[in-house]
Amino acid sequence: MKIIPFKIPKTEKDSFLLQEDHVSHFYDKLHQHSEVQLTLMLKSEGTLIAGDFIGSFYVDDLYLIGSNLPHVFKNEDRFYQNGKTEAHMISVFFDKESFGKDFLLLPETAGIRSFIYGLTNCYKITGETAERIKQKMLQLFKLEGFDRMLHLLSIINLMATSTEIVKLSNFKASKSYDASEGKRMNDILTFSIKQFHRKITIEEIAQVANMTPEAFCRYFKVCTRKTYLNFLNEIRITNACKLLINKDLTIAEISANSGFNNLSNFNRIFKKVTGLTPSLYLLKSQLQKARKE
């Protein structure tokens, strides 16, 4: 496996791409493309990895993924087991060339020009902005030609002027990965997601990367701007958050199921990653769910 550099296909009639994925599970290889990606989850859940961000995604989530940022929407295991088309999302792919070379140089487009050129990370769109964009995205798929382009511009302008966009990653993808580097990072990622529930030593993960422990630690820190232990703990806490919300388990059971053998250590790391204790995180999630209902 490698971080696959995608070329987003567009016809001669289109300057940007609309894509609907309605499948048993989403494409599960870490990949990147030069286009910005705006994605709405219609039916699915799993783990999003984008740059140095690791977190859960759910139905109705709306994400904006910057140019060349390595990312993957990895579904839960159950999506691979039943063969049903339960994973459903719609996406818009666009870049600074989508509206012509000179369009973004106009004085009237200064706001969206600055916004588009600054999209290098992963973002989650929230609040009223998200609700408005969701409706506009669904409408976008019903339009054609000039009306479709105007509709996309209105979406971009809405995002550019919103204060409800949360930056999730701090990873600036300044280059495309070559095949060997991409394979190494994908192997590390895949192994970590599958094995996080148990103890993983630096020696073991270094062997997966085909490196010495010392070289691996340096390499991983340069690539992700974090230590491997911090990365692994974020995967574990992401799993713990899902269990807190969806399973009737004690905090001690969730700690053990997420790869921690010490409850106090689990509580400390949980608060470090999320900013909340497990109990407060659960309460906040329950209140948010009640408001939606």
Automatic annotation (TrEMBL):
Which intervals hold domain HTH araC/xylS-type? 186-284
> Which key words are in the record?
DNA-binding, Transcription, Transcription regulation
- Report whether Transcription regulation shows up as a keyword of the record: yes
Q: Which residues form a coiled coil?
A: none
Q: Which InterPro entries match?
A: Homeodomain-like_sf, HTH_AraC, HTH_AraC-typ_CS, Tscrpt_reg_AraC-type_HTH
User: What's the superkingdom here?
Assistant: Bacteria
| UniProt GO MF annotations | DNA-binding transcription factor activity; sequence-specific DNA binding
Keyword DNA-binding attributed: yes
Record Pfam families: HTH_18
Which SUPFAM superfamilies would you find in this protein's record? Answer: Homeodomain-like (SSF46689)
PANTHER family per the UniProt record, alphabetical: ARAC-FAMILY TRANSCRIPTIONAL REGULATOR
Annotated protein name in UniProt: AraC family transcriptional regulator
- Which species is this record about? Solitalea agri
